[in-house]
Amino acid sequence: MSKTDGKPAQQTTAGATKAVVAEVSIFQIFLEFLIIGATSFGGVVPYLRESLVTKRHWVDDKEFVEMLSISQSLPGLNATNMAVLVGEKLRGWMGALAGILGMCVPGALLMFAVGIFYREHGDHVWVTAALKGVAAAAVGLLLSTVVNLSKKSLSSKFDLAFIALTVICVNRLHLGVPRTLILVGILAILFHYPRKQQKGSASS
Amino acid sequence: MNQIPALIRVFSYLSILTVGGGMAAFPEMKILTVDVHQWLTFPQLIHLYSVGQMAPGPNMMMIVSIGQWAGGTLGAIAVLVAFFGPTAILAYLVAKGWRKLEKWPWRTSIQQGLAPVSIGLLLAGCFSMAKGAISGLETGALAVAVLLILLQYKINPALLVLASAVVGLFTFMPK
Question: CA B164, CA A136: separation in Å to the nearest integer?
């Protein structure tokens, strides 16, 4: 358990404030994420903050926001990326593995069972009727995510053009997600090239 | 017929497309799982995705159901590892290298540039899904109602999805 794979375990010289998390065990990480994975109905982010920042103090608020923005830019879901980032911070690769396993196991078991049930009974009239409502609601839920993310993470009005271009490439031109991602992604990153900060950067 | 290698190939490929959210990979997922491999139909894909929104944890766990249908328990496990493995490894590597990148000026550029693209991918996925999920006035109205309620009030989305199942039950039952 005391393997440090070459890197210093704590950087106490820089700041002593982050030494609180020194003795979190792999099992504790697994258990905490298992609880989040089993209870986070309707989106994981608030549950993650409540558990990791408020309850356990494993990360502070600033770190949490930063990790979330990394999770958002990387491929992968927020839920699993956060589990990896926080797990890694606490206990290296074992912590990351414990975090992502805990996060995934409850939902995976549930959807395993749901899949079997749906296969058996998915064509009953009442199931079809209910699912028609559920699917429509899922579209509304997705749209609200799009609106909220736009409010939070866009840094320029031109970003709306990049959003439109992405949608056109995928849904109209049928370029496929990978080509669209590379094409529009590079354009948008170049558009936001690093300028010399004149007015003090508000966004990070 | 053994579907496991195909499941691993498809879902590890989809894994790296999920920039900004699982929905970014939806258009590609529809093509690969429905059109190419025919593991399920388009309505089934929409249903599983939507039901998955009520489950806790990462919101793309419906992939487990697809794996289970195509390859049994082993298929479910294969899909789970294939879909979450590659991005987990990437996140792990980034986590380790992040401190070094902190002063790299392009870091902010990448974050600011990828934000609109990932939102666009999410929206594109949403439109692909709407093609199958919104079929008339009633479903359209229900989607808009959910959108407006979520923007206006702080309410748990899973509850709204559940309520919509009840609305669906009363509205779409054949008389």
Answer: 8
ipTM of the complex: 0.88
**Between residues 130 and 159 of chain B, which touch chain A (CB distance below 8 Å)?**
130, 132-135, 138-140, 142-147, 150-151, 156-159
- Note whether residue B119 is domain-resident: yes
Residue type, A152: K
Q: What is residue A40's three-state secondary structure?
A: coil
Instruction: Give the DSSP H/E element, type plus range, for residue A45.
Output: helix A45-48
**How many domains does the structure of chain A reveal?**
2
Which of B123, B144, B155, B170 best probes binding to A when mutated, by most A CB atoms within 10 angstroms?
B123
**Dist CA A138 CA B158 (whole Å):** 10
Q: In whole angstroms, what separates CA B23 from the centre of its chain?
A: 4
Number of compact structural domains in chain B = 1
To 10 degrees, what angle do helices B106-133 and B42-52 make?
Answer: 120
Would you say B53 and B123 are in contact if contact means Cβ atoms under 8 Å apart?
no
* Residue A133 forms part of a structural domain: no
Q: Please, which residues have CB within 8 angstroms of residue B76's CB and are 6 or more apart in sequence?
A: A108, A112, A115, B64, B65, B67, B68
Nearest to A41 among B62, B66, B158 (CB): B158
**What pLDDT does A7 receive?**
42
Q: Which of A2-16, A24-38, A139-153, B110-124 tops mean pLDDT? A: A24-38
A109 shares a domain with A29: yes
Q: Are residues A67 and A25 in the same domain?
A: yes
